[in-house]
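Progress report, Aim 2. The chain analyzed during this reporting quarter is listed below.
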Amino acid sequence: MSHGFNVSVGTEHPLGANLDQTGCNFAVHCPRAESVELCLFDAKTEKQVAVIPMPAKTGKIWHCHVADLAAGQLYGFRVHGSNSSHQGLNFDPEKLLIDPYAKALSRPLFWDEKLYQGDSQGMMPKCVVQAPLGFYDDAQRPNTELDQTILYEAHVKGLTQLHPNVPKKHRGKFLGICHPDVIEHLTHLGISAIQLMPVSAFMPEPFITNKGLTNYWGYNPVNYFSPDPRYVVKDGVAEFKQMVTSLHSAGIEVIMDVVFNHTAEGGYDGPMLSFKGFDNASSYLFERNEYGAINYDRYVNNSGCGNSVNTASPYIQKMVMDSLRYWVQTMGVDGFRFDLAASLGRDPYEFTALAGFFRTIRQDPTLINTKLIAEPWDIGLGGYRLGQFPSNWLECNDKYRDTVRSFWRGDKGQTSDFATRLLGSRDIFPHDNRSILTSVNNVSYHDGFTLHDMVSYAERHNEANGEQNRDGHGHNLSANYGVEGETKDPVIVALRERQKRNLFATLLLSQGTPHVLGGDELSRTQQGNNNAYCQDNELSWVDWSMTPIQQEFLTFCQQIIKLRKSTQILNHLNLEGDTYTSTHNVEKVYWYRPDGERKVQDDWQDHNNQAFAVELRGVVDDKDTHQGHWLLVFNASDHDVCFHLPQFCETDGWKLMFDTRYAKWSEQPDVMIRHKYLQAYRSLAVFKCEPMA
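Predicted structure tokens for the chain:
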């Protein structure tokens, strides 16, 4: 095709499409191709208008400059070369490829087998040339201290799709999240950071598409720079930045959930969308035989999604770092949650905390100041790595989740482990080299039951997923308290609400970084589905209408978050023996039996022990009269327990701050206790030592 454009050699850097004063420079990593074609398309019709053979290759990069192109130009690539899978070569000029460095796509990508066959141009969205973007103004960032950080995990669409005050065209979009009513809800709740589930461009898997469902969560990326067009009204880059700026103005940081462990291209039989068509051999990990020879026909699958990205490859590592810097420097993001992050530490096959990926992030002056959160496992051999990430990382703590659920469900023999989780899981994150805030604590996450479902269902109910209820985790540590699912029985409803208060209060009273699942504060239900990844409907979307009971729980959540943020003793406890920091704010920590005696070793081993108290005595210093003196009382048993309160406070009194037995915050009694307190079954209470009136 005669293109009629003024084409010159251009430069090999920077990668991607970059406008200058005379046109646009294109550069793409494709080391083993025989030739690469730049394809240009009409912005309205997506009709191909030009095919430009890229005239130059420098090292591993093909490049050219096309004069007089402007922002909004649509483009893609076709690659010519050997198609020899056993050598790792998958070149096929019939497949239009997405530029790995594209900053925007023209439309969402959906799998369509008919459109993919032969020339895939009809199925593939086109890359969009973007105008040069300056750096985000760092002065706008909240820069929230870690001990004030409370994460709120949310889905862009799910959070706002049913919000009655968000304009219809903005619902489910980036612009919906920055609606004043949504931001007001987040600020009144008290969270400090919204952790967005994947927003980079993705494609639902063929097998789920063929069932008439979709990948709602978005954990199947096709590009690591482009905001997914599903969440865009008109301009994805501008709207994402507008969302970030609005959240920052409200003091809320933005954390991105990123998926660098696999791509939507799947394994050997998967489609060619981008990486496979440019440099398959370097982009992915492949199995090796007993002599170390690579079998390019068998992709390593540490992700469970068909392939594993080779982040130890110099090019892939550069691309990932460029992506992270782009989201921080240009788009304004404050941190990242890394999906299946153990894969990133495989260098390339075995995990090590000294992996090149970790070292590169740590020396980067931009990324070292961001919040880095690891999901510290993958499904590959040796993939469970909780507690083994570098010290500047936070880690999602599944042991915390399981122990807290089990304790409050009433399982016996959990008290010792529960106490360890309560004070920062120092058995996992030692105090000599990890902050007490390292543990990202959660009782619910996007993959699993919501908080409301955790106390309403004993079993998963994933029939709508079309997999005969075999998908999703089977070990949920949940309970229904008499009836499976929703009920109007007032006794069961009251107990469920109390258990929700217990779980949420424990989360916010625990040392570490709390993670709240968005919608839990609104009593969101997925009707027992604990794997709603393919449910893009009311099952997954947040319902903003609330009953009086749900409103009371929201008020409780707001008050507990407020209490946590009110004192360092509750949000960042520094013990004198904690060598990670040179300061301490706690004089003593004492553990008590209900009879008022301090717990000894045998008490911790008592299988039937389900009630205890912990006293936190803050230090007195020159700047603060007192760091506080607190008492936390827990009773997970099925009967009331009389507690003898510590007498260290006998010249003053223990002021009750809250007790989860009370369904309404307005009913919390304003009382001072000196000696004894009857702690109701399955409840917790928090006291503060204050002078008697």
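The first strand starts at residue 7 and ends at 8. The chain has a mean pLDDT of 95. These observations will guide the mutagenesis work planned for the next reporting period.
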